[in-house]
Amino acid sequence: MATQTENQPWTIQRLLTWTAEYFQRYQQDTPRLDAEVLLAEALGVPRIQLYARFNDVPGESQLSKFRDWVKRHAAGEPVAYLVGYREFYSLRFAVTPDVLIPRPETEQLVVEVVDAWKQAPWSPPFVVDVGTGSGCIAVAIAKQMPEMHCLAVDVSPAALEVAKRNALTLGVSERIKFLESDLLDQVPPDQKIPVIVSNPPYVGNIEEGTLNENVRKYEPELALFGGTSGHELTAKLIEQAAERLTPGGLLILETSPMLAAKTHGCITANPAFQSCRIKKDLAKLDRVVIARKRA
Ligand SMILES: C[S@@+](CC[C@H](N)C(=O)[O-])C[C@H]1O[C@@H](n2cnc3c(N)ncnc32)[C@H](O)[C@@H]1O
C-alpha cells in the first residue's frame, strides 16, 4: 500500500478506493466487495457502517491487520478464509481451510428442500446432508424449517467440527446430528431416510489443471475432487440412495453443468427411481438434479 502523503490521510473512503483498484489489477472477481469485507472486519464493524464513517482514519493496529490481509488476498488467499466467515442463505457461517467456502449456487439445494416440504411434507421430518462441510445446507434447512431434523454427514472430522460450531452459533444444534461417515456407510441401517441432499465433490482429477488456481491452492482437496471424471463419488451416492431412501423419497444433488446429463443418466438407468429432472441455477446452468424413488 502506498505510503501516506502529508495532505491525504488514509481515510476509510480512500483505503477502499485504493484497495479495490489494487485487487482489480490482481484480477480478483469482486474487488470492491472484498475490500469492504476485509476493512470492516479489520475495524470490527458491520460492512454497512463503513459508509457512515468514510472520513474516519483507522488506527495503526487496524491498518496493519488490513494491509496484511490485502497482500494475502492479492496473492490469492480467499477473503472468507482471511476473515473466517462467509454468508450463505443470509446466515453467517464460520469457515476454515478445512471446509469448502459455501457458494451462492448451493443455496438452491436449500430452496428445493423447502419447496418439496411445502408441496408434500414427509414423515419423519428428517433430511440427511451428505458431505456437509461447513454445515451450510443442513443448518440453513434447520433454520428455515423449525420442524425439521437433520443428519449432517462428512468423511472429514475437521469439517464436522466446523459444522457443529455453526449449528451451535446459529441456534439449531439440538436438531442436527453429526456423523463421520464415508457417504451413508455409517448411517444406522434402521434409520428411515425420506430425503437426501448433497453437494458432493464433483471436480474430476482430469480437470485439475482447469481449476481456478486459488481454489486449488486453498480449498480442501477432499471437498473438490469426486474421482477421475468427477462423477464417481456421485454415482456411488446414487446407488446408496437407491437402497436407503424410503419409498417415494427424494434425492437432491448439486452437480456441475458438465456432469448434469451424466448424473441424470445414472439415475434414470437405476430402476429404483421413478423420476428425475435437472434444474438450472441463477446463471441458467444445469446445476441441481432431483430424483424421486419409486413409492
Ligand atoms: C463440495 S463440499 C460441500 C460442502 C458443503 N455441503 C457446501 O455445500 O458448501 C463436499 C464435502 O464432502 C465431503 N466428502 C468428500 N468425500 C466424502 C465421502 N466419501 N463421504 C462423505 N463426505 C465426503 C468433503 O469433506 C466436503 O466437506
Outline the fold blueprint.
Blueprint: H1 12-25, H2 31-43, H3 60-74, H4 79-83, E1 85-88, E2 91-94, H5 107-119, E3 126-130, H6 136-144, E4 149-154, H7 157-169, E5 176-180, E6 193-198, H8 213-218, H9 221-224, H10 232-244, E7 245-254, H11 260-268, E8 273-280, E9 286-293
Helix pairs in contact: 1-2, 2-3, 5-6
The chain binds S-adenosylmethionine (SAM).
Residues 99-100, 102, 106, 130-134, 136-137, 153-156, 159, 182-183, 199-201, 222-223, 233 line the site of S-adenosylmethionine (SAM).
Characterize the structure shown:
- By secondary structure, this protein is of the alpha/beta class.
- It folds into two domains: 72 residues, Helicase, Ruva Protein, domain 3, CATH 1.10.8; 197 residues, Vaccinia Virus protein VP39 (Rossmann fold, 3-Layer(aba) Sandwich), CATH 3.40.50.
- It has eleven helices and nine strands.
- Strand 1 and strand 2 form a beta hairpin.
- Helix 1 packs across helix 2.
- The chain is elongated, with a radius of gyration of 21 Å.
- The site of S-adenosylmethionine has 24 residues, from helix 6, strand 4 and helix 9.
